Amino acid sequence: MPQPPRVAVLHIRSSRPHAPHFQAELDMLNAAALDAIAAEGWAAELVAVTERPADEVRQLARAADVVLVMGGEDVDPALYGGLAEYPGSGMHEPEADRVTFDVIRDAVADRRPLLAICRGVQQLNVALGGTLHEHMIGHVVKADDPFVTTTVHPEADTEIARLGASAPVKCSHHQAVKELGDCLRVTARAADGTVEAIEHTDAPVAGVQWHPEHPAVAREQLAPLVRQLLVR
């Protein structure tokens, strides 16, 4: 009998004393992702990349059948020549970016499945030489529930783009893909033109700017996206 897929779920850290509300939000998303993975009968390990040796993180990612790169703080703008100061710049996690970039580049080089979510899709783009819009409005709200219900429009005829367009998605971001990284293409956008999904043209590596792991939709939206990368 074949073994269930092993999923490495990469996030930044398990504690943010300086931002407890944000930590609680990310914990909620991580828990919903793990629940959705377990509901499929798959095995998952949650990996905080700032709390493990970098070599161990890379090895865990290589040993997994698929990697999920989760959300968090903005990508360090120094890594893509962006503005050092901008509205909502907040804190950055450059070490987490560097380790995750290595994981992403490994996945591309070895053609191993990887799905990047929110900050993850921005990391995917920057890791492959792209840039970001440092600040934009309309895709996050300052409220107890920061998620904006968004309609996604396929830019290319891909299964992941169609899955995103099949039902309204949950967005919460003030940055977005600007110039595309090497061998990436846009597969879906929001109505205002914001890039909402990208994929590598040669490897089973893709990213979505929305949150398929939001607890309101995780069991319906996350697994189908992962499954498409596993069968590519």
TrEMBL record:
InterPro entries: Class_I_gatase-like, Peptidase_C26, PuuD-like. It comes from the Bacteria. PANTHER family: GLUTAMINE AMIDOTRANSFERASE PB2B2.05-RELATED. This is Glutamine amidotransferase. It comes from Homoserinibacter gongjuensis.
